[in-house]
Amino acid sequence: MCAVQYSLAALLLIAIASASGQTTVRWYQQDQVQQGQQLFKHKCAKCHGINAEGEPDWRKPDADGEYPPPPLNDDAYAWHHTLDQLREQVHFGSKSADGEMPSFDGKLNSDEIDAVIAYFQSKWSDRTYQIWQSRQILSATRHLREQQEPSQHPGTYWLKQHLGSVSDAPGVAMKTPAKGIREVRVRDDYVYLSEDGRYAFTGHMIDLRDGTDLTLLNRAMETKNLLKTFPVGDMLLYPAQGHEKTKLTIFTDTSCSYCRKMHREIPRFQSEGVSVRYIPYPRRGLDGKGYAQLKLIWCSEDPVQALSTYVETRDLPDPRKECIRAGAVEAGYHLGNSLGISGTPFQVLENGETIKGFKPASEVLERLKIDSEPG
């Protein structure tokens, strides 16, 4: 009970500070961060890493079906948990969620748990923290509204009537910083609803104080987190030459001529310090030629070489009876649909921003903020 009251009080202070233009005010103090650093070092770093970076393969369950410790730094695995949920996780552990997190009941008191959370949240960028903060405010106040508001916003009801398709069904109508305006996701786009649900409009919501495009910010964060659900081991990796400056993830299809054109740009990316990661996306569905071809490539003995060979010669590898990546193509297809991909190539920058269709490496490098080497 005390923890919930503390959260609401802290959120009110944050909301007041935000209204006055201090958009990066955080709920914790610097002395909590310093205390949390020492506690984290002795209690948490063994599993989550000294810098809260987590285990490299944290998305993959081990032989016992348990997930390794995830990152808690600005990779922002924890950004979608409220403050009370984070406290509960530290207090009780994660055994009920197939994780390895032990309980710290009796080992850390409530103030020490807050200090640990303050420490790893201090590693979050302002952008990550602001998104967490807005969702935290919504979550912490939602239970106060449930008795006064219908569970379904009237605007989402009318959207469903007009859209018709189950795959296009709108998500939950979330409050926005604009009074009386709700935001609901429909496939890869956002629709904004009036408070009474009668009017809907599309476009971008921009904070005119600082020019922040809140629509793009939301979309990038959701894309970034959806991308983390696809195992890195099921991607085809073309590593950067020398020091890696950033990563570029591309959804590709063998039946796409522009994908083949994109593939020929890879040496340029590699020479500029960009690692390219491929995810298969059969754009014509799971019964088309592209699906069968992508599966042959992903299931080959050397998928990276097999894809490059196909681009140049159209030769496909022989089928293999056993394939550890058999489900990767189907998983890539479903992930692409979740992102609203309508064509390939579809590129995702490391910060979650996207590029639709083919663009020469020079243009993509500008978006990646990678300076070309002279000569």
Q: Could you describe the 3D structure shown?
A:
With 375 residues, the protein is an alpha+beta fold. It has 3 domains: 2-142, Cytochrome Bc1 Complex, Chain D, domain 2, CATH 1.10.760.10; 150-203, Disulphide bond isomerase, DsbC/G, N-terminal (Nuclear Transport Factor 2, Chain: A), CATH 3.10.450.70; 227-367, 3-Layer(aba) Sandwich (Glutaredoxin), CATH 3.40.30. It has 14 helices and 11 strands. The strands form 3 sheets. A 5-stranded mixed sheet has the order 7-9-8-10-11. A 4-stranded antiparallel sheet has the order 1-2-3-4, with no helix packed on it. It has a two-stranded antiparallel ribbon with strand order 5-6. α1 crosses α6 and α4 (83-92) crosses α5 (110-121). It starts with a helix and ends in an 8-residue tail after the last helix. Residues 1-22 and 143-150 have low confidence and may be disordered.
Task: For the structure shown, list the relevant keywords.
single chain; 375 residues; alpha+beta; Cytochrome Bc1 Complex, Chain D, domain 2; Nuclear Transport Factor 2, Chain: A; Glutaredoxin; 3 domains; 5-stranded mixed beta sheet; 4-stranded antiparallel beta sheet; 14 helices
